[in-house]
Amino acid sequence: MEINETFSQYSDWLYTTTVAIYVVALLFSLFEQAFGAKGRLAAERSRQKVLVGAGGPDTELEDGDVPAKPEPRPEAGRPERIGRMGAALLVLGAILQLTAIVLRGLAVHRAPWGNMYEYGMAVTFIAVVAWLIVIKKFPVRHLTGFFLTPVVILMFINGTMLYTVAAPVVPALQSYWLSIHVSAAIIGSGVFLVPGVASVLYLFRTAHDKDAARFAKFGPKLPAAEVLDRIAYRATIVAFPIFTFGVLCGAVWAEAAWGRFWGWDPKETVAFIAWVVYAAYLHSRATSGWRGTRAAVINVVGFAVTIFNLFFVNLVTAGLHSYAGVN
């Protein structure tokens, strides 16, 4: 089918706009992270005073005593307001990025992940959506800057080094397995970005807890290590079965296309290594009770292998997956 150049151009413009919006959201979040810690601590102290004044668990009221009137909730300071603006920009960027993906699909009349540029665009979108869900469930909005940093870097590399003009896919990719196998790999890889960042921050947090003097300026601004560990574990539980399904579908597609389920292609091999690392992470937690630093290190290794497979394998090595639009 003929490529719709108009939709393709709009998709490229929206992608560039999304990167710019994410950069602004990143700066807003870093501002909140740097200057909002005092505001969060003040709000926590005020909350504790309200509980005490209202006859909470930290105080005992004698007969005839009247509980003190709760103090009004303190207004959010400037860093917190800027942090909320950053979160709103993150939502706007996700909407624009989704629109760019849809327009790319309409332009090429197929699933919009037939080359590495489209794949990277979809992976980063899933990662942003996953993070938006996390900050909805956990009070970690101020950590958005740490999460957006790798996202912006990946999107910049994707839009420059990996950019591919809209075009039909090669015959090897003209299969319904493109939608099934690649979409599962996209969702799994995108969600894996969240536990990767959370585990890195966990290591910094525990380092501060062990050596507060050395990490005095960084550790206190992070949430408790248990919170970061919980985020990493729950996100990995969500991503791992989806990623596993994608690997299995890839093997079935390989048998249908090339006559074998496994051929030790570089991308297949590194994907399998990533699967083993994440399986080891979940297995060690379930059976050996591994938590804390050891589990976080395994998760970081899995994240590193995933990024390595996403970019380095396609840029440097040659294999059966080299048709993904990268020279």
TrEMBL record:
GO terms for biological process: cytochrome complex assembly. Residues 113-321 form the Cytochrome c assembly protein domain. The chain crosses the membrane at residues 13-31, 87-107, 119-135, 147-170, 176-204, 231-254, 266-284, 296-320. Residues 54-79 are annotated as: Disordered. It comes from the Bacteria. InterPro entries: Cyt_c_assembly, Cyt_c_biogenesis_CcsA, Cyt_c_biogenesis_CcsA/CcmC. This is Cytochrome c-type biogenesis protein CcsB.
